[in-house]
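Q: Could you fold this chain for me?
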Amino acid sequence: MTPDSREIPVDVLPPLPDDAHVVPNHPTAVRIAPPLAGLGTFYHPASGVVILGVDLLVFGPEMLSGFLDTPIMCVLAFVATLPLVFLIQLNWSRDSIASAFGKAFLGAFLAGLPFSITGTMFGAAVLMLSGLPRNPVEAFKKLAAHKTSGPLT
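A: Sure. Below is the predicted structure, expressed as structure tokens.
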């Protein structure tokens, strides 16, 4: 070493944010923050999209009601919605298993009603409970403006 050179400290990384999720006892694990975490809404926004999306796909177009009977469509909507909302609530909203299942059951029940809830007070309730705006352009702006912090260590 020359007299002008000195040792540089290895600790040059910025400090972790307060909401960082670090896996204990595993120094090399990288944990990615869930999308739109910490909004404080009843449903995660993705759950609201799933509930309204499945409902709109199953009961929105009139042509689908001619292929299958209405009770079968109700069951299909319920069965399609329940696991998706459960996994979103469990993994992204960090709900307990019982809470995630209760929210998923309620969302699947709403999606399985024998009519489209998109333009009703049920659809408005899902929008409000998931924090989604009424206008799709506002929803896109909200999602685009939200910056995820990327991988957290």
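A (continued): The longest strand covers residues 31-32.
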